[in-house]
Amino acid sequence: MIATALSAYFLGVRRGWSRRHIGQVMASALPGVTRVILVAGADGAFGKVLIKTGTGNAVADLPDPIGVP
Q1: pLDDT per residue over 19-61, tens digit each?
Q2: CB distance 48 to 42 below 8 Å
Q3: Which of 11, 21, 23, 64 is most open to solvent, judged by the fewest CB atoms within 10 Å of its CB?
Q4: pLDDT tens digits along 46-55
């Protein structure tokens, strides 16, 4: 949210854009970005779950018996 506010200021207000124009630009840009942020956040949370439950180590040890590095 801080980055969004800063980008609105530096890319809009300093260029003399109106609030309406900044709003239109943000409204067209944010929906695509939110998907990326959601996926990255979910990936980080899933990684923490794997680490905390020990599943990550179990999956890492699976290839050992067959000799796969």
Answers
A1: 999 999 989 988 888 888 888 889 888 888 888 898 878 887 8
A2: no
A3: 64
A4: 888 888 898 8
User: Can you read off the two tokens belonging to residue 16?
Assistant: 């003399």
Side chain identity, residue 57: N
Give the number of residues written for the chain: 69
Distance between CA atoms of residues 59 and 46, nearest Å: 14
| Helix 19-53 with 2-11: angle, nearest 10 deg | 150
Q: Which helix (H) or strand (E) holds 15?
A: none
Query: Token digits for 50?
Result: 């794997």
Residue 15 CA to residue 17 CA, distance in Å, equals 6
Nearest-angstrom CA–CA distance, 13 and 5: 11
